[in-house]
Amino acid sequence: MPFFNAPSALRATHAESAIPHRAILCVAAAVATSAILSPTMVFAFLVSVGGVFIIAGNMMIVLARLRLVRDGRRAALFTLTGLAAVLSAMAVDPRARHELGLGIIAIGGIFVLERLKARAPPAPARGQSAP
Predict the structure, then answer these.
(1) Among 37, 50, 111, 130, which is most buried by a count of CB atoms within 10 Å?
(2) Which residues cross the membrane (predicted)?
(3) For residue 78, how many other CB atoms are within 10 A of its CB?
(4) Sign (positive or negative) of CA dihedral 89, 61, 76, 64
């Protein structure tokens, strides 16, 4: 599995599970360090974007169900309308607008990074050198 712009020391994976343990440990250390240095800011950010991520994830599940399953469309559309109403209510409420904005920025950042990853040249196969 190729990793996008990962340093070679972090690309190493476990032989049996193919999990990049070093990369996971480095990310966990970075998150723990930032949480120790500024706990209120990190916790507030995670709480702020968490709700929007959950709603967006559920909307993607419902949209996938609409594409894959023909029966039960009425319930899926009702669910999708309800989730959209929650997002609309967040946009109207001044207290929740900040959380919605942070969540949209975070999700947009993930999509941009995924697009950049898709345009990157493929990594050389194991045992081959880069041109």
Answers:
(1) 50
(2) 43-63, 75-92, 98-116
(3) 11
(4) positive
Tally of domains in the chain: 1
Rounded mean pLDDT, 66-77: 83
pLDDT at position 3: 46
pLDDT of residue 125: 62
Give me the residue label for tokens 């309308």.
81
Residue 79 lies in a domain: yes
Six token digits for residue 94: 């001044």
* Interatomic CA distance for residues 4 and 121, integer angstroms: 9
Question: Per-residue pLDDT for 27 more than 90?
Answer: no
Range of the domain at 60: 39-119
